[in-house]
Amino acid sequence: MKRWKLMGIVMCMSLMVCGCGSEEKTDGNKEVTLILDYLPNTNHTGIYVAQEKGFFEANGLQVKIIEPGENETSATLVAVGKGEFGVSYQEDVTYARSAEQPLPIRAIATILQHNTSGFVSLKSENIQSPKDFEGKVYAGWQAPSEEAVIQAVMKQNQADFSKLTMVGADGSGFASLGKTVDLQWDFEGWAVLKGKMDGYDLNYMPLKDLDARLDYYTPLIITNETMMDEDPETVKKMVAALKQGYEYAIDHPEESAEILHKYLPDTDIDFLKQSQAYLSKEYRKDASTWGVMKDEVWDRYTDFMVEYGLIEKKIDAKDQYTNAFIQE
Prior knowledge:
13 helices; disordered N terminus; 36% helix; D-Maltodextrin-Binding Protein, domain 2; 3-stranded antiparallel beta sheet; 2 domains; alpha/beta
């Protein structure tokens, strides 16, 4: 689930040249492409359940699921019409919408209601709060948004950010903890769970518990504004099918893990089942229905991005997302 952040956007082509109209097949189903944010994982289970159970087809869709290329983001690819839908993140949508030349994308459903990522360390390091980050080494992807988050949580705990050493992750994962590295940022339902299953004695600090502004939507579903304006019925059908997929995963976590395993045959099935058991409780947590989003969540994180200089000015929540395609 680790991924690079959208750092900034420079348009190098006319967005309207590509067009985003979906193709209608001879069987009556419309062919659309959904671009993942990263490699398939349990964040995506509802998508594969919808594919396997025929929910896309029942809604008149033929969906092609692809991964982004190296150094590509689903936000930019969806914006230029390389796919009608994508899996992205709140911060990437905000970057895209607040750019000097805004990308025409919107979030149309959130996969998770809460941020399920946080800071990880070995229990033996006794890192109990961001105050304990002082004098430690943090390994990450070295993006401005990452540094801003760490500054914020340390500030809230009266810690001196200058006393934390930040280095680039070397890909060794938890094997470097307690050796060359003291801290990492990972998702609880994937990397942290796998680490514990592999025998690492880990301490985990949820980001959402450290600063309410950081309880943002990650990941979520996006589409292009051209699709919203010119083919809203297809957008509505896509969201309906995804909702069916994720609600099935909520009610049938073990079976859904087995479905995902068909697409990830080299991943341990016991791990997938445990990861799915965790995430199935998170997809719709505290919400009236799967996918719905709130202005306050968008506003809090947008304010945070402005405060830490990640974007130049505030952008309204309504310009970043809509619940219009979600049926109760």
